[in-house]
Amino acid sequence: MTIPISLLVDDGAPINMMFWHDTACDHPFLVPNSLVREFAGLCERFGVQGKFSVLPMPSGLGRIDGRLAHVPQRHLHTFLEIVRERIAPRFDISPEILTHFLAHRLAGGYHHLHEDEWVARASVEEVTDYIALALRILASVGLPATGVTSPWSTGIQHEKQYAEAVGRAQWRVHRRRVTWYFLHVLGAGPGRAPWVSWRNPRTGQAVVSIPTTTDDAFWRTQRPYATTLRASRVAAAAGVDALLTADGKGGRIRELVNQSCPVLLLTHWQSLYSDGTCAGLWGLAKLLERLEKIFGAELAWTRCSRLAAQAARSCPQTQP
């Protein structure tokens, strides 16, 4: 029996979201497009599939179907071109939701709340409109999204209503009967397969919650945890071992395989960039080599949309 494995990449953008999220440290602002090419090549080499988030309005700097403040237009266009041509063929695309920063006012301007705080107070109709805008922006640059990624823990306070908004937005923009969202990180303890969290009996729609079953093993390759290439590589190597030991007998992935649970790996674009050292990407390459050597065809790479379709068929009732 093969076990599905998927790589979920958060915060994809031509900029480094840590520049805004962690102002106490010196983080580069732009992420070079060489990282996009190297990541795409690595995934092509090992057959990796999963989901890749693209921020429609990263940090509120503008819309990716227009212009971003302080970002050269050629840099933005090249990022989108590589994602379309080399990442989207292997990965589902999702918005994370709109800005991953201050909530955008649909009438113009920004709320004095981050998106997770605003969503916790907004109605289903308001959140539906908000997500629909994110989906339309991605579609306008040739990246139709099959699902939605939650920035931070957005939607967790009223998850059923949030799942409904995801479903209604996808129906409005793409008429999708099955869609999904990523919100939960299950990095320890029992793993869990994706589950249906909302159904619309009128349209036959199903909205599936797809968790990750690992933590981000490469988060500590960034500042303030690591400030040199050597320290970043040490952190990345430790992350690989935490996921899967060299002998294949230990680590979170071994736990999941022993449970016959999907291996749903989490990482972030900034974790792979590692403030310019690319130690996270180096670590990902080491992990992929180890996975291939130890498990071979026992693990089957798949996209989130396929996991969602399977859950929609096998779970007739919604689950908490």
3D architecture notes:
This protein is α/β, with parallel strands linked by helices and 320 residues long. It has a single domain (3-314), classed as TIM Barrel, CATH 3.20.20. Helices cover 40% and strands 16% of the residues. The protein has helices at residues 18-21, 33-46, 73-87, 115-121, 124-140, 159-174, 229-243, 252-258, 269-273, 279-295, 304-314, and strands spanning 3-10, 50-53, 91-94, 102-104, 110-114, 147-149, 178-182, 195-200, 205-209, 263-268, 299-301. Strands 1, 2, 3, 10 and 11 form a five-stranded parallel beta sheet that branches. The protein has a four-stranded mixed beta sheet with strand order 6-7-9-8, sandwiched between helices. The longest helix is centred in the middle third of the chain and has 17 residues, at 124-140. It is globular, with a radius of gyration of 19 Å. The relative contact order is 0.17.
How are the SSEs ordered, and which strands pair?
Layout: E1 3-10, H1 18-21, H2 33-46, E2 50-53, H3 73-87, E3 91-94, E4 102-104, E5 110-114, H4 115-121, H5 124-140, E6 147-149, H6 159-174, E7 178-182, E8 195-200, E9 205-209, H7 229-243, H8 252-258, E10 263-268, H9 269-273, H10 279-295, E11 299-301, H11 304-314
Parallel strand pairs: 1-2, 1-10, 1-11, 2-3, 6-7, 7-9
Antiparallel strand pairs: 4-5, 8-9
Helix pairs in contact: 2-3, 2-10, 5-6, 7-10
